[in-house]
Amino acid sequence: MLGNIVVALVALIHLYIVYLEMAAWDTPRGHKAFNLTPEFAKASKVLAANQGLYNGFLAAGLIWGLYLGAAGFQVKVFFLLCVAIAGLYGAATASRKILFIQTVPALLGLALLWAGW
Q1: 3 state DSSP class of 33
Q2: Which among 42, 52, 70, 106 is least surrounded, fewest beta carbons within 10 Å?
Q3: Is 31 within 8 Å of 41 (Cβ atoms)?
Q4: CB of 65 within 8 A of CB of 76?
Q5: Residues 60-76: pLDDT tens digits?
Q6: Quick one: how far is CA 29 from the chain centroid?
């Protein structure tokens, strides 16, 4: 139960990231969230939208796993692992805060699911 709540939270985080990357990238909110200059945001808008789409797939996979209930255990584990790995890569290459926004919640969800909570 608690594991599913964390899975839902990770999915919601990724839906928000989708919004930031696909709709708000070239706005003051997007600039602040990603520490962007207006010039860089404008030049990288299409790339960010593509990145947002991938985050949407992660959210969709987690939501699918939740929809499947107990039968979705493996789906949730797979997509949480994807989120954790993407977060590690992002923390190593882009910003350390990604570790806390993506990786830590995903690993917490994995631990809770594996513990049967």
Answers
A1: helix
A2: 70
A3: yes
A4: yes
A5: 999 999 999 999 999 99
A6: 18
